[in-house]
Write a structure and sequence with these properties.
Layout: E1 3-6, H1 15-21, E2 23-26, H2 40-50, H3 56-72, E3 78-82, E4 88-93, E5 98-99, E6 109-120, H4 127-132, E7 139-142, H5 147-155, H6 175-185, E8 192-195, H7 196-201, H8 210-223, E9 225-228, E10 239-244, H9 256-262, H10 264-267, H11 274-282, E11 311-312, H12 317-327, E12 331-335, E13 341-346, H13 347-356, H14 362-365, E14 366-367, E15 371-373, H15 382-388, E16 390-394, E17 400-405, H16 406-437, H17 440-444, H18 449-452, H19 465-471, H20 473-479, H21 485-502, H22 512-528
Parallel strand pairs: 1-3, 11-12, 15-16
Antiparallel strand pairs: 1-7, 2-6, 3-4, 4-6, 5-6, 8-10, 9-10, 12-13, 13-14, 16-17
């Protein structure tokens, strides 16, 4: 037994027919009878032929929904229909797929359903199940958190019993629903745009850890949402748009993604590199979500997204030299009228050109410049930056959009090293005071008996063990510290969580605000243990 949501149109416009005639209905009327299409590939071929203007991503997405509706939904499964009133109808599927070509004012693809209850109050549904119902897809399965059994309870007139592990349920799971509602509320030419930092905050996270990225990607997939550019690309303060990538075609037979690429008013709302990302999405050769690996990209550096000062082809060498002196630059990019790189002028190239000809022009002093794509791995360009002192950055149209210098790399990686150094000093100070004031037998008592013999000093303890060790009254008293124990232990726990976060890869730097708790704890430890 499985549970499926089958929406009655993008805005619920078919719900009266669905409830009145006992039907599940989907759009895609340009397609004929799907009964004879036994495989996904068969349906995909038909979709591609019926909607020739759509790219592979949309074709693949629609194929998956139609295949589910025709083949995966089974007689006896539960069907859920979210209603415009805010309530929910629940029924049981009683018929196989049917094609109704003679219907002139409604969908041609239907399945029979017996509605068991048509007015389930959303307040009787737990937030996590409501959240799962929030996809922008037309056809999708409710598969998480024992959803089928809980839908069965709703069908029987009972309240949602909740997920089996409800004691671990995080209240923040309701937040993505607000994002979905905002995307749904907006018109196609007014997509939701926000910074990656604000986007992550919807899920209650501050940095793109792998676990957080996986959770967000799964939530987006279940809701039929897509971000452009991918939220895993660019700096944490760069802008993305959130789109309804899986919604069925509108009356004109086009998808939201295709409408976006063809609407100049919609594109004007997007960040500069988003149009390229939308195009890549349209051209993706599979309906499955593409890779969104979190990595150190060139675009993760702020300077890679900040247009550098430049001179144009045809400017005088005097102009270039004046700008370089005024700004303290060692080099300047030379751009053509389209903003593409034609070379670089530097003090070295100027000197060489004037040695050959004292009246040398800008063209004579222009040499080839190094260019990286925004999506390149940053680590691949470190050697070039170290050797040349810089590398220019270009966007999807090969226009210059940024400049990375050795100074930028120093700041980038210096910022990343600093938290580790800070936490290491905290651990070293904790080890020293524990070893100095607390006997080894009481240190060993902190760990399970089977590991006690392996503990020869505080260096063998995990960071989390210090909280338990110092909660023991006689151990705390042994330190002789005239500070509040509970506040110290709370700060220690906050630092432990911060330390654990550092151990998980993220391309996003730690901010000063995020460093403050650990810095405060270190200052306190230095005060209590001033030696060294």
């Amino acid at each position: 037994m499985r549970a499926w949501v089958v929406r009655a149109g993008v805005n619920g416009e078919r719900e009266h027919v669905a409830l009145g005639e006992g039907l599940l209905l989907v759009g895609w009327n340009e397609l004929g009878d799907l009964s004879d299409f036994a495989t996904r590939e068969d349906i995909k071929t038909a979709v591609a032929a019926a909607y020739p203007d759509e790219g592979p991503y949309t074709v693949g997405n629609w194929t998956g929904q139609l295949y589910r509706f025709v083949h995966e939904v089974q007689v006896g499964d539960f069907a859920v229909l979210p209603l415009r009133s805010g309530r929910v109808a629940v029924g049981r599927v009683v018929g196989d797929y049917e094609h109704r070509p003679d219907v002139t004012d409604g969908p041609h693809h239907v399945r029979r359903v017996e509605w068991l209850v048509k007015d389930v109050d959303r307040q009787s549904i737990q937030p996590d199940l409501q959240n799962s119902m929030g996809s922008l897809l037309t056809v999708f399965e409710l598969s998480r958190f024992a959803a089928a059994e809980r839908v069965a309870a709703l069908a029987g007139g009972e309240a949602d019993p909740g997920r089996p592990d409800a004691d671990e349920f995080a209240a923040g799971l309701t937040e993505p629903t607000k994002l979905y509602e905002e995307v749904r509320r907006r018109a196609a030419d007014d997509p939701l745009t926000l910074s990656i930092r604000d986007f992550l905050a919807v899920w209650g996270v501050q940095r793109r850890y792998p676990a957080a990225v996986d959770q967000i990607k799964n939530d987006l997939d279940e809701r039929g949402l897509v971000t452009v550019p991918p939220f895993t690309e660019g700096s944490i303060d760069s802008t993305i748009a959130v789109l309804a990538g899986g919604a069925e075609p509108d009356e004109a037979g086009t998808s939201a993604v295709t409408r976006l690429t063809s609407s100049s008013s919609a594109v004007s709302h997007l960040p500069g590199n988003a149009l390229d990302a939308v195009q890549r999405l349209v051209e993706r050769d599979s309906g499955e979500p593409g890779p969104q690996d979190v990595a150190y990209r060139v675009s993760n550096l702020e300077s890679a997204n900040r247009m550098p000062e430049s001179v144009a082809v045809g400017d005088s060498l005097a102009t270039a030299m004046t700008v370089m002196v005024l700004r303290g630059y060692s080099q300047l990019p030379v751009l053509d009228a389209d903003g593409r790189l034609r070379g670089v002028v530097s003090w070295e190239s100027i000197g060489r050109a004037r040695m050959a000809d004292p009246r040398a022009t800008l063209e004579a002093a222009t040499v080839r410049g190094q260019e990286a794509d925004r999506s390149d791995d940053l680590l691949d360009w470190i050697g070039t930056v170290q050797q040349s002192g810089y590398v220019l950055v270009r966007d999807h149209e090969h226009k210059v959009c940024g400049l990375i210098t050795a100074s930028d790399l120093t700041v980038q990686f210096g910022t990343r090293v600093r938290p580790f150094v800070l936490v290491e000093e905290i651990e070293q100070r904790l080890r020293r005071v524990v070893d100095q004031f607390i006997p080894l037998d009481r240190i060993r008592a902190t760990v399970p008996p089977r590991r006690a013999s392996q503990v020869n000093s505080a260096a063998n303890l995990t960071f989390g063990a210090y909280k338990h060790l110092l909660r023991v009254p006689e151990n705390w008293a042994a330190l002789g510290w005239a500070i509040d124990q509970e506040h110290f232990l709370a700060a220690l726990e906050e630092c432990r969580q911060f330390r654990n976060g550092l151990m998980h890869f993220s391309p996003d730097p730690v901010t000063e605000d995020q460093l403050l708790p650990a810095q405060g704890l270190l200052e306190l430890l230095r005060s209590m243990d001033p030696q060294n």
